[in-house]
Every structure is written in structure tokens, then in C-alpha cells.
Amino acid sequence: MAPSAPSINSTMSSRMATPRPSSYRYKSEKRGMTYNIMLVGQSGLGRRTFLNTLCEREVISPPEAPNPETANIADPMRFDTYEVNIEEEGTRISMTVIDTPGFGDGLDNTECFKQLQDYIEAQFDEVLVEESRIKRNRRYRDHRIHTLIYFITPTGHSLRELDIELIKRLGEYVNIIPVIGRADSLTVEELATFKQNVMRDIDYYKLPLYNFCWDESDSEALKENREIMDYTPFSVVTCDEVLDNEFGAVRVRRYPWGSIEIDDEGQCDFALLRYILLNSHIADLINYTEDVLYENYRTKKLEVGGFGEGEGEGEEENDEDDEVLGAKNE
Amino acid sequence: MSASDANSAKTQTTSGGIGIANLPNQLHKIVTKKGTNLSIMVVGESGTGKTTFINTLLTTELIEPLEDAARRKKQMDKTVDINIHKAELEEKMFNVKLNVVDTPGFGDYVNNNDCWLPVVDFIENQYEQYLRQEQQPVRKGVVDMRVHACLYFIRPNGHTLKPLDVRAMKAIGARVNLIPVIAKADTLSPTALRQFKKRVMDVIDAQSIRIYQPPVESDDEAMTVRNKDIISAVPFAIIGSTQEVKTADGRHVKGRQYPWGVAEVENDQHCDFKKLRSLLIRTHMLDLISTTEEVHYDKYRTTQMKTRKFGEPKPRKVDNKKFREEEEMLRKRFTEKVKLEENRFRQWEQKLIAERDRLNKDLEQEHNLVKQLESEIEAISNVNSPNGKFFRK
Questions:
Q1: Residue limits of the Septin-type G domain (chain A) (predicted)?
Q2: Which of chain B's residues have a Cβ under 8 Å away from the Cβ of A192?
């Protein structure tokens, strides 16, 4: 499918996120919407440069030169947090980005999934504890992950076991948006074939990605969302330098045989993805996390009765408490 | 010839020439007729362009891309396969039997521990086969599949070698001519590529990974310069393509067409394909073959000969862990099934025994009845005819 859809942008700008009439939301509007993104993918797929290009400045500095002596030992996965304040078409977004260097880089990566799952669940648990405090913290900062951007290696064939396992395991806890990193290694036909194969794999293995069409009430939005889903996974190329030509500053990536314009929708899906993440779908992503994913987790947790182990103020770990909580929150 | 004569042999150059200088020509004829054997192995994660590279190198589609069904099966099966593709190349009356060994599944899974073991085993097995064939009484028709060059495809992540690459290259480089290659080099900008090459070489030095060092010095000055050029390009940055495309200035070249330009395969500014092709085929093929035979195979032979007697088979190594687990599981299942069957048979046997006893009892009862009747008859017949005669009605 030819990657050119200029019409989407114009109709989408009318769908700006309007906050729901709940006091929590209005208050946070002043401070800036709380938005938490996690970047997951093997090293070398452009996570760091993606964030820098997204925020139009260098948020993560280049890593220091690796030590050749320790090249045979894999660094364990870690979680690096970055805080960025963005203003997008009048809305202030207080964004927290969590990078996960070390994912999938070792010889045996089976532990990585559990670590990610534990991290995401920990954020849910924090909210669960906070919700049921007798005296709630007014300045409580929500750390639940609203979007997980997963970078797929551009092999040109189809998904690999690592990709399949990750989406399978984390899809029920977080919105996963698949992205093809370093998409400039694929020609136009190769990219189309690759996208097709990836989507076929996703259907075959029934992988739980973020479904743009989850809210079926608004039919016009549904039509747009269906068009957007045709672009998944989004191809991403990131910016090396900024050139000045007659049209102003252009973000490019230069090769001996030509330059790619990052913001040109005919050449890669970066602009579209940025619009989705920060503009048109930011409210949807947050809503889905809070209304569906978190609620599912909460129900499961309370049914099992495992809740109550956190450091609440004077909360006793017994069944009576859980029943009371269950009744209160109905 | 006496010993003293041999020791004092003088070198004499004959002025007219007796024709010794004709030996290379004779050799040339023999070699041309015999042809040669060349085995190349390609190792690397899926999607690094191994298949495309081989097809580009040979300008023919030797390896076909996988079908969807086959690819899906391979996605999750967690094993490394060894696939051998054979071809016979002929150019100007010279024959080459080419073997290309592919390793699908290498480094493709969540757990890639020891994924280089099948590769290493394959290389050593070829040495072993050759060794055994050499030791046979009849040595004609020897099949030589020893690997002459192993290309390791490094994914260009822009930072450095991954731990998997380091461990695999170390194991492979100790046994065969290892040539590191940067796959899909058209995804790195020139500065990034230079930096990446330097970092890779730093790691190779620091970790004592042995790679193939072609000889530099040669009699021909131009050759020496070209050799130095080739060596400075290691690891080779590769772009592969079998398609002909048109560039912006109208040339038809082999390359990859992007919306922003054409990356040409045979352009030295774009990638090192020509240098690698030169190394593999045009200039250093003989050196690859002879180093394999004289250095790597010889090392293997020496170590084996030290511990094994002539003609003894190789002791079986401890099996692969995964296979051992499977074997254990199979054995357990087998014993369980056998136990189940035995129980069933035992029950059946008991049933049969019970049945037999019952039938025997019935039979006995009948017997007793018959005996009774018989004695009754006798009793009656005795009563009715005291002199033993029957009284017929």
C-alpha cells in the first residue's frame, strides 16, 4: 500500500482530546497531562534517536563508547527514566519516557519479559494502593504506562520469537504500538511485504496489540482509525541532522546516494506516528489504560486477594479488608 | 646417487633451457581439467541478507527464499539447521564444485545460548570425514566438504559487537577462516559506518578473535597495494541485490532503489562488495583453500592423532543438552506406556484365569453329574437283571 495519506492529518486536527468532566482530569490539565511512554527494543534499532527526534531536542545523550574488553558480557536490562515537557497544539503534556537498554541483547533473554511485566504491574499496584488509602495524596503522580512502543528489527521477513513472546505477554497490561526501527534499510516493496507479513503473523498468533478501533461509538473516528491501522507497524527513520534549504529547516538523514526527509510522509511514517502519540490518540491511549487495562488488572488482583501487601498506612492484610474494599469501589 | 652428491647439489640455471620451466604449464592443464572444490559457509541472524549476498556473488539464484509455511514452522522451533546448497560453476572451461552452507535459526530465538555449537560441530565433522577417508585403504573419490571460508554477518546496530557475536566468532574463528561482514550496510551513514568498523575491530582485538588474514606482500606491486586496500576494509560492509535498477543519472546497475536514491552494489563509495568478492574468488581463493588445508585441518588432525590411534573412530561427545532432555522425556513416556500395557495385560490375564477356573468348576460339576447318572444307571441295570442280561422292552 502506498504510504501517502495527507487527508488524515486535516480531519484529525478536529478530533482534539477534550478532557472528561472529572475534577482529577481538569486539575491535571493545568499541570499538564500526565503521559507515560515506554520504549522497548533491541539495541541499535533507534530508540534513543527516536525520542530525540520526537521531542525535537536531545533528551538522551549518546552512550559512551563501549569497552571492548567486556564485549562478551551482556549488560543486564535496566530502566532509565526521562522527564520531558512538551507543548502540543496548546496542550501541555508532562511526559515521562522509560527506556529499556539491554532488552534482548543477551544470549538468553527469557528473563527480560518477566522484568518488564513486573515493572508495569508495580505501577498498577502503586495506583491500587493509592486509591484505597484513607487519606489520599493530592499531589499523587500516576506512573502507569500508557503506551509501549515496541521496535521490530527490520529483517524483511516476518516477526521473530522475541517479538511474538513480548507482545503475547505484555499485551494485556499495556497498549503496545509496533514500530519498525531503522526502516531505511528496506525499499518500498520490501517495506510493504514486511508490513504485510508482520500483520499476518499478528493475526496468526492472535497477538494483543493496541486496537485503535476499540471505541466503536464514534463512527467517523472509527473510519479514520481503520485507515490508521493499515499503516501498522509504523516505519520509523530518525534524524541525523537539520538542513537549511529554501523551505526552512528540514530534518534529514544523509547517505552517499541521497537524503531521507524524516517529516515527509511519503518516505516514512514518523510524522504520522508522532501525531498519533502526542495529538490525536493521546486521550484514547490514556483512557484505555485507565478504564480497561487497569480495571482488568484490578479485578484480577482483588479476586485473588493478593492485594494488601503494599505499604499502606496501617492496612491489615486480612480478608475482611478486601471485602470492604470490594464493596466500597463498586 | 650417493649421499655426498645430494648434499652438495648445486643450483644450476641452464642457458638454453631443458624445459623445466614448462612444468607450470603442465600443472595448469592438469588443474584446469581437475577443477576444484570450494565450500563457503554463511552464518548470521535471519534477515541479515545472507541469501541475497550469495545470490549476488554468484549472479544466480542459488538459494531460494523460504515459503510462508516453512518460515512459520521455523519461527518458533528454537533449533539451528544446517542447509547445504550445491552448485557447479563453469567459467572458461574451469569447473568449480561449489558448496554453500546456510545456517537458518542462528541467533533468532529468545534463548540463543550455544547456538553456534551446530556450526562448530559441522566444521569439525567435515575435518573428521576427510581424516577418515584419508585413512581408508582405497583413497579414490574422496569427498571434500571442508569449509574454506566462513562469513559471519554482523547486524549493524551502530554500537558494537553483541555478546552472541563475540562468543560465536571466537568459537568459529579458531577452526576455520572467519571473515566478518557488516550486513545491510546501507542503513548506516558513512561516519557511523567508519565508527562501527573501528569498534568491531577493537573488540576483535581485545577478545582475541581470530579472523582470516590474507597475505599482503606479493611480487606484483599493484597486487600488494590492492591487498592492503582489501585488508583495510575489514570488516566488509555489504549491500546485496540481484535486481537491476536505474540510477538518477541513467546508469543501469545492480542496486537497491529507495525513494531517496539508489544504493549501488558495485560502487566502492557505497559498500565493500567488490573487495569481498575479490577476496573470496578473484584473488585469494587459492589462499583460502590452502590455509584451510595446511593450517586449520592440520591443527585438527594433529590434535586428533595425538589422542587416537590410526583408524579408531571418534569418541562420541556428550550430547547436546536439549537433545538429552528430549531423550529423557521420551524414555519416561516410553516406560510409562510400557507399564500401562503391562498392567492391562496382567488384568486381562487374571480375568482369563478367573474365567478358566469358573469354566473348570462348571466342567467338574458336569462331570460329577455324569458320574452320578452313570452310577445310577449301573445300579438300575443291576437291579433289573441280576444275571447281567438287559431286559428289553
A1: 31-304
A2: none
